[in-house]
Design goal:
452 residues, alpha/beta, Rossmann fold, GMP Synthetase, Chain A, domain 3, 5-stranded mixed β-sheet, 29% helix, 28% strand
Length: 452
């Protein structure tokens, strides 16, 4: 991504603000320092970042200058990854400072198009990484800027971690459009984020399901600054009842609310629902982003064309990853395709797509197949309970809730779907474990279930 060195403000933070010209200068300075620290022509770098100006300078400098980098949160357990991929240089870029530590001296054979590497799980022990190219990142940023209608006058609030693909896309889509990004600690329950949003007049807010569940609890009017004009939601499925509440609020306050769907493997955006459709079609993901294409396939790979036929959602677009890396030699490879089998089950109705669950999140109860994600969505909606997770295996469904008041009703509702209460175990865990990306931590939930 090439930035125009204009005098418009690119980054706002409480510590300082940078114009696009100053941002370009700092990126050049970062590269100069990196060259002094590592003599290799094209080193493999691990970037450990927060949501600061220094962090964005480091990411953009590596991207623009062709240095492949693994993007990590500060708290990530990165030591195993260093050894696994024989990383040459670790850079810690935070609001306080930028430091470099040299590790492997290996000269890597790297795919010439490779730019960014992201973990799919949020962990780095024996990490499986998604390999993204400049074209992947740039095309997706351009597409997002197009359908969100981002103009140079916009000021996007970085309300998610930069090391998360959704957070990174906020930065790339806004800067590519010549708009500004507002930086602060993304903790929704802290004061810094909202202080920055109000001080610098944020025009958009981006959130995962947890973000909006939090705002619904405190009150959208109370939580969101009055300058906000655009709301976006991705990073997991928000219950249709909650989507409808936000959509009605947006309609009443003349805001644009976009429900979006994506995966890290697609840089990360795949589909979006137009704001005018959200109230009536709250459970839909809409259709493909500009430049992309969606369709459904059955278990034999046959394309499904009729409404209400359930199959795997498949996507084609220039933002589809180069491939996965599980070891250092994989970094030279490319999948050679721009098609992504998402692993999500979906159906189509009236030109819109609806996700029903994951292919791998399927169990059989009394010989009948059920989607854990679908059961979880139905239960959450009917109970009006955001803290609810379904896990389990064949003939053993586990429902984890945050409040014991839902235990009896959960079993009763499941009986309506043909699930025998004898096959259901309801556990109360509060709070339900979450990942750093704001999703339920299914592994941690299952461990708690097993321990009980």
């Amino acid at each position: 991504m090439i930035l125009s060195p204009s005098q418009d403000v690119a980054l706002y933070s409480e510590e300082r603000r940078l114009t696009f010209a100053e941002l370009v200068d700092e990126m050049q300075g970062f590269v100069g320092t990196l060259r002094l620290k590592c003599p290799l022509e094209r080193p493999l770098i691990a970037l450990r970042v927060d949501n600061s100006v220094n962090a964005i300078v480091a990411c953009l400098a590596c991207w623009q200058n062709g240095f492949p980098f693994v993007l990590l949160d500060q708290s990530a357990q990165w030591q195993d990854l260093i050894e696994q991929y024989q990383v040459n240089l670790v850079c810690l870029a935070t609001a306080d400072s930028v430091t470099f530590t040299a590790y492997s001296q290996r000269t890597h054979c790297l795919n010439p198009d490779l730019r960014m590497l992201l973990s799919t799980s949020g962990t780095t022990g024996r990490a499986k990484l998604v390999m993204l190219s400049d074209n992947n990142l740039t095309s997706n940023a351009r597409s997002i800027a197009e359908y969100l209608q981002i103009t140079p006058q916009e000021r996007g609030l970085l309300s998610l971690p930069l090391a998360y693909s959704y957070g990174f896309s906020i930065v790339s889509s806004h800067l590519l459009a010549g708009a500004s990004v507002i930086l602060a600690d993304p903790n929704l329950m802290g004061k810094a984020l909202w202080r920055a949003a109000n001080t610098f007049k944020a025009s958009s807010f981006a959130g995962v399901p947890f973000s909006y569940q939090f705002l619904l609890r405190v009150g959208l009017a109370r939580g969101l600054p009055g300058t906000i004009k655009t709301l976006t939601q991705a990073g997991g499925k928000l219950a249709a009842t909650e989507v409808a509440k936000i959509a009605m609020y947006a309609k009443e306050h003349a805001l644009s609310f976009y429900v979006m769907y994506g995966q890290t493997e697609a840089s990360p955006r795949i589909a979006y629902l137009e704001p005018e459709d959200v109230v009536e079609h709250a459970s839909s993901i809409g259709n493909a982003i500009p430049g992309g294409e969606l369709w459904l396939e059955d278990e034999l790979g046959v394309t499904l064309t009729e409404d209400m036929q359930s199959g795997e959602l498949v996507y084609r677009g220039p933002n589809v990853m180069l491939g996965y890396a599980s070891e250092v030699d994989d970094l030279a490879k490319s999948s050679g395709t721009n098609v992504l089998h998402t692993g999500d089950l979906a159906y189509q109705k009236d030109g819109r797509y609806y996700i029903t669950g994951r292919l791998k999140r399927m169990i059989k109860l009394n010989g009948k197949r059920f989607s854990l994600d679908d059961l979880q969505s139905q239960l959450s909606s009917r109970l009006d309970c955001a803290e609810l997770v379904c896990t389990g295996e064949d003939d053993a469904l586990c429902v984890t809730v945050g409040d014991k008041a839902y235990v009896k009703r959960a079993k009763s509702i499941l009986a309506d779907y043909g699930v025998s209460p004898a096959l259901v175990r309801v556990n109360v865990v509060s709070p339900i474990p979450m990942t750093a990306n704001g999703k339920f931590d299914l592994v941690a939930v299952q461990e708690l279930v097993d321990a009980n």
